[in-house]
Design goal:
The structure is a single chain. By secondary structure, this protein is α+β, with helices and mostly antiparallel strands. The chain has one domain. α2 runs antiparallel to α3. A hairpin with a 5-residue loop joins β10 and β11. The longest helix has 16 residues. The protein contains four helices and eleven strands, in the order αβββααβββαβββββ.
Amino acid sequence: MKRLIQIIAVLMMLVSCNGHNRKTVVLNGFQNQETVIYSTSNIDYYLGYDDLVNYCKKEDNGEPNDFTFRQIIVYLESYSDKPVLIPDTLGTKLEMESKVLFTESDSLIRIRDQEHPYAYLTGELRWIIIDFAKKGKLKIHVNEMDSFVDTIIVDRVENKDYGETNLTFTNDSIFFSQLRDGYDKKNTKPNKL
């Protein structure tokens, strides 16, 4: 019985560590560019305007059904103020959830507004933030502390069917999480940091 408990403990440790791919990143930000700020209630992500436009141009494959990168460029070019602000609620709307039986204020949910011209912009921007974070090409402002962080951890947790990417502070507190499938669609092999 004692041996079985030891085996179970070892297996639990191995399973919990399986698929983690952690990388510590120093955030260098960007130089000599206008600023784009993706704003959430807790964190503001500062990206270089030129870096973001160039990234979107490079990733745009020109297919009519894959328009999200073009949508980002149009938004950036049409935004007249500086810095360019992108709230995380852009392209969404509040909807009353009829199946939830709480008070009215509890049953409001935020969903993508399919009719909004920038409905898919923030969804794609979350993937871009991950790519920029891996390269250290952004700045992260923590609103509660009113300060920028200079080092983060990019943690990819994956197996053959699904995964997620987390951005964490150096104390392992998760401040950004994105679910995804476990494979890179271009290479059909597990994603690497």
